[in-house]
Specification:
GO molecular function: cysteine synthase activity
Keywords: Amino-acid biosynthesis, Cysteine biosynthesis, Pyridoxal phosphate, Transferase
Radius of gyration: 18 Å
EC number: 2.5.1.47
Catalytic activity: O-acetyl-L-serine + hydrogen sulfide = L-cysteine + acetate
CATH class of the largest domain: Alpha Beta
Strand order of the largest sheet: 1-2-10-7-8-9
Strand content: 15-25%
Family: Belongs to the cysteine synthase/cystathionine beta-synthase family.
Largest sheet: 6 strands, mixed
Length: 302
């Protein structure tokens, strides 16, 4: 297969049957391997989609700089897209240890990195860039950008439906910006309203189910606010997961399925296996493996 750029490799990821992790005699767990996108995460899809949409709407043109506040994979995806499309990019991150590997990746790709003392201050700084010079700076703002969930409705969900649609009984997903859950959830409900949509919450951030909110210990999962693009009406079931359960499930998946993914994937697989116990052997529970595990080495995740 020959492609014109690495951007052409985004999407069309395989769905893997997790034979060793599916409950015996119950539904099979299938996981969409989004970590096989070029920069190793599901965020490659919305990164490209947001830039393409901004170009189409004349909000972004050559000579401008893309600025985004992100503590994770969105920054990597946006930097990759910016490199190919010849934009400068500034990634603003909070000063926490867990993002050090992300920081190194985007710097290696050519991004300028600015560190702040909180994610909230990172968002405000990004908005300040655009407000003070809108002709020079463009902020995609994944938490508000409808291109984020839309790309999952148009691509990720359609790939799932094409591959395993008739047997799907439930879809399980974590949430950060909410783009993946909302985008895929909308398409699956349109395809079959009876598909159960299961949302995963960190047990320390019960933002939907209620309770004391501290901070998420599962990187990339469970912000302490609900984004503008998140459609909470899609939620059928909420399941809470601890950081320890997510870590153990990630390690178990690596040692039984040979798939090394991050803690959000561990949380997804852990819950998907629990949900699968409620369905029969002819059914399928689908989940997402959002990113690679290698970028969490050294962060006490494994």
């Amino acid at each position: 297969m020959i492609v014109s750029s690495i951007l052409d490799v985004i999407g069309n990821t395989p769905i893997v049957k997790l034979s060793h992790l599916s409950p015996l005699g119950k539904a099979d767990v299938y996981a969409k391997a989004e970590f096989l996108n070029p920069m190793g995460s599901v965020k490659d899809r919305p990164a490209l989609a947001m830039v393409n949409a901004a170009e189409k709407d004349n909000k972004l043109h050559h000579g401008m700089t893309i600025v985004e506040a992100t503590s994770g994979n969105t920054g990597v995806g946006l930097t990759m897209v910016s490199v190919i499309k010849n934009y400068k990019v500034i990634i603003i991150m909070e000063e926490i240890d867990i993002v050090e590997s992300i920081c190194k990746i985007v710097k290696t790709l050519g991004a300028e990195v600015i560190r702040t003392n909180s994610f909230e201050s990172a968002v405000k700084l990004a908005e300040t860039f655009q407000q003070e010079n809108p002709e020079k700076y463009y902020v995609p703002h994944q938490f508000k950008n409808i291109a984020n969930p839309q790309i999952h409705t148009e691509t990720t969900a359609q790939e799932i439906i094409k591959d395993v649609g008739p047997r799907i009984k439930a879809f399980v997903s974590t949430f950060g910006s909410g783009g993946t859950f909302t985008g895929i959830g909308r398409a699956l409900k349109k395809y079959n309203p009876n598909i159960e949509l299961v949302l995963i919450e960190p047990d320390t951030v019960p933002i939907f189910s209620g309770g004391r909110i501290t901070c998420s210990e599962i990187h990339g999962v469970g912000p302490t606010f609900v984004s503008d693009i998140f459609d909470r009406s899609l939620i059928d079931t909420i399941v809470q997961v601890s950081a320890q359960q997510a870590r153990e499930a990630s390690l178990n998946m690596a040692r039984t399925e040979g798939i090394l993914c991050g803690p959000s994937a561990g949380a997804s697989v852990y819950v998907a296996a629990k949900v699968a116990e409620r369905y029969s052997s002819n059914d399928i529970v689908v989940t997402i493996l959002p990113d690679r595990g290698e970028r969490y080495f050294g962060e006490n995740v494994f």
